[in-house]
Structures are given as C-alpha cells and as structure tokens.
Design a protein that fits this description.
Number of helices: 2
Mean pLDDT: 89
CATH superfamily: Glycosyl hydrolase domain, family 43
Helix content: under 10%
Number of domains: 1
Low-confidence stretches: 5-23
Distance between the termini: 45 Å
Structural class: mainly beta
CATH class: Mainly Beta
Radius of gyration: 20 Å
Largest sheet: 5 strands, antiparallel
Length: 303
C-alpha cells in the first residue's frame, strides 16, 4: 500500500514538473500589435536593435504585387521606426529604397537583418529581389542614413533570402534561406567576404539565432503567409554540427496573427527573450508587428 502511494505521489510530482516545464518554455504573445504602420498597415520581417536609449526597428514595407489587393502603398522599400522602450513605436520613414532599373534589388528590398556594429559602422544585411533573390548590405554610422555596399549582392548563388547575422569569437555567421527553404550559413571576419555555405540541417524562412548557455537556438518559419505560417525551433551545441528539430514553438496566437505568426527578431531584455514577429489575419493584405516574451532559464542567465 505504501509503495503504491509513493509511486502515485512520484507520478503526480513528475506531472507537475512537466507542466511547469511547459509553462516555462512557452512564449506569451501580447494580444494586440506593438506596431502598426500608420501609412498602410504593412510591416513585415521586423528586425530590432537597441543603440543607446533608442530602439530601432527595420521592416519590409509594401510589395510589387499591389494590384492583387496585397501589399501596402508606394514603392517597395525597407522602412524603419524608433522607440524609447521597445513597446511604443514611431514610424520614421524609408531606410532602404528600391534599386534602380537593372540593379540587383530593383524589384524589392526585403527581410532586413539586425544591424551589426563593426569599427564604428553598422552593417545592415537584407535580401533583394530582382532577377533572383540575393543578399547584400548597406552601411550607416547613425542607423538612419544608409549607403548600399559597392559589391552587392555578396551572396548570389541560387536563392539567398532572409539574412541574419550572428557574431561569436570574432567570426560573423550569416544565416540565410536557400532553395527548398533550407537554412545555410556562411562565415566572415570582415562582414564583406564570405566563406562557402554550410548546411544547418534546418528548414524555414526568416531565421534568427540565440545562444542559451551552451545551446544554440535557431528559429525558422514554416509555411506561407497566404495559407498559414508558424515558427519552429532547432537546437545544437556545436555550429559545425547539424541542428535538431524541436518542433513548433509553444506560443499563443493573438487574433491579429491568426493567419501567420512568423518572421521576426529576438532581443534579450533582462531575464526575458522578446520575440518581435509579423502577423496577418487576412491572407497577407495587412501585416502588423507583434511581441512575445519567454523567460530565460536561470541556469542560462548565470553563464
């Protein structure tokens, strides 16, 4: 009898631990967007950086298929907004304009990566649609005025979309989506010249990477905005080894993102991850930026 009671208590405790783990692992999305573009309610692919006391958000604005009823207003471009707290945002205008006819990004600049600071200069990588989808960069010293790089596009073999740049031990890793939505990365020491690509074993668009303790967490988006899209997580302990599929992330879906919740960026804010994502509820006619939060495990905070 005592043994049976002990086993029952042990199972109950195990159940509580699993429930607590699931709660701790969950992303909690705000029910309302943190940013709606005041011009056309079209803000996709947000990337966020904090510089001094100001947060900067860069995002894809408008698209070249507006005659279908989708895609905001005006020329396709990358816009930006600023915030004093990461919550309340003000649109500032155009960051990256569409290229001139014949240039690599003459259809649409899109999917801006989080800017990376090197030697007093910010590098903003982004994808350009023209004859294909390739990746280049622009530079700035104030995060407001950007100059496109002279060697663009720097990644141009096959599809090179949705760049994300991660720095570790003096090496820059540029993750991007290739054919079949497979995620690859290239490396560089100067942010201009890149190595041959390395396959991660992961799949998805709009990848973003964070390191938690000794674990690398890679997020990618599965699906398409017009028929549903969601975010998956992959992990590895060594960037030279393939990532393991951890499945769909645990997150609630607010109404404004019930059609697609994906493509974003992650900031570390104190003891939380802040995940900024794009959301649509009407098959891509409008996109807002949402915010979800997840606690950082105490063990990871100490490392």
């Amino acid at each position: 009898m005592k043994k049976a009671v002990f086993e029952a208590v042990a199972l109950l405790c195990c159940g509580f631990q699993l429930m607590a783990s699931a709660v701790d692992d969950a992303w909690k999305a705000e029910e309302k967007p943190v940013y709606t573009d005041p011009v056309d309610q079209w803000a996709k692919d947000p990337s966020i950086i904090k510089a001094g006391d100001t947060y900067y958000m860069y995002y894809t604005s408008a698209n070249p298929w507006q005659d279908t009823g989708n895609g905001g207003q005006g020329e396709p471009r990358i816009d930006y907004a600023t915030s004093p707290d990461g919550i309340n945002w003000t649109r500032q205008g155009v960051a990256i304009a569409k290229g001139k006819a014949g240039e690599w990004d003459d259809t649409r600049p899109q999917a801006p990566a989080k800017p990376i600071l090197k030697d007093g200069v910010y590098y903003l990588y982004y994808a350009g649609a023209g004859k294909g989808v390739t990746t280049g960069y622009a530079t700035s010293t104030d995060l407001k005025n950007w100059t496109k790089g002279p060697k663009n596009p720097v990644l141009h073999q096959g599809k090179c979309n949705d760049p994300f740049v991660y720095l570790e031990n003096g090496t820059y890793y540029l993750f991007y989506t290739s054919g079949g939505d497979s995620i690859h990365y290239v490396t560089s020491s100067n942010l201009i010249d890149w190595s041959p690509p390395v396959a991660t074993g992961a799949t998805g668009e709009g990848s973003v990477l964070v390191k938690e303790g000794s674990t690398y967490r890679l997020f990618g988006c599965i699906g398409f905005s017009l028929n549903g899209e969601y975010c998956k997580e992959y992990t590895t302990s060594d960037l030279a080894k393939p990532f393991t599929d951890k499945g769909r992330i645990n997150i609630n879906t607010p109404q404004f993102a019930r059609g697609a919740l994906c493509h974003g960026d992650i900031l570390i804010q104190g003891n939380e991850y802040w995940f900024y994502f794009q959301g649509t509820r009407d098959n891509g006619k409008r996109f807002d930026v949402g915010l979800a939060k997840q606690p950082i495990p105490a063990a990871a905070e100490k490392k």
